[in-house]
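A reminder from the course coordinator: this example appears on the midterm review sheet, so study it carefully.

Given structure:
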């Protein structure tokens, strides 16, 4: 069952729609039922899907995507695609976030065929309820894929700019933009896998605790003066 936002929702993260009602519409292509569109966020789609549309037939696996563009490194903190997968895992449904690491002429067939095989292999095993896999595909033809790597997230290098625009009424507007982001190609990272034309699969954790920092923060707090 397909449940998707009815418009572009890039970089919307894990936003939920809590202050207005959501509208769900059935979508037909060439007269055939295709799925549902929702005037909300990717995470909204997961919640509406699990709690209403598919409440009597809970899915065994959620696939979020295919996203037109990469979700590498720090991108995951902005990504609606990844956030939808995280929402699924939070509700105990194993989830995949699928993205194409390109910016034009997207090779959807490559990502779709490979994702289908990944899903089939996962279904043969006992799925972990809170599993989240962030999967990025190089933007190339299927036969050019050089392999699959289990990776860690690398470091994204953003080149953000703020442009100031003045409208005829004299109001100042700010436009966020900049050059396309880059990434550090380091060993075992998602950036390295994509650079080598390999599929990157990064397991994500719902626990964002920095355990290495706990002792340091404890020592720091002991030194604080609250008087």
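Designed residues:
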């Amino acid at each position: 069952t397909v449940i998707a936002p009815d418009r572009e929702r890039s970089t919307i993260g894990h936003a939920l729609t809590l202050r207005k009602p959501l509208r769900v519409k059935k979508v037909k292509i060439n007269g055939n039922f295709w799925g549902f569109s929702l005037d909300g966020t990717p995470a909204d789609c997961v919640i509406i899907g699990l709690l209403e549309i598919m409440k009597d037939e809970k899915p065994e696996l959620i696939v979020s995507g295919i996203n037109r563009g990469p979700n590498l490194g720090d991108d995951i903190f902005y990504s609606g695609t990844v956030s939808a997968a995280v929402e699924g895992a939070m509700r105990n449904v194993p989830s995949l976030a699928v993205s194409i690491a390109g910016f034009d002429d997207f090779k959807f067939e490559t990502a779709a065929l490979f994702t289908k095989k990944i899903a089939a292999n996962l279904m043969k095993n006992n799925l972990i309820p809170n599993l989240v896999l962030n999967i990025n595909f190089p933007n190339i033809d299927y036969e050019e894929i050089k392999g699959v790597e289990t990776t860690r997230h690398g470091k994204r290098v953003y080149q953000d700019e703020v442009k100031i625009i003045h409208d005829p009424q004299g109001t100042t507007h700010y436009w966020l933009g900049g050059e396309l982001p880059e990434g550090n190609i380091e060993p075992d990272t998602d950036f390295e896998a994509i650079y080598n034309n390999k599929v990157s699969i990064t397991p994500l954790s719902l626990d964002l605790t920095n355990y290495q920092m706990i002792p340091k923060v404890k020592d720091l707090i002991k030194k604080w003066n609250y008087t």
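Residues 108-123 form the longest helix (16 residues). The chain has a mean pLDDT of 96.
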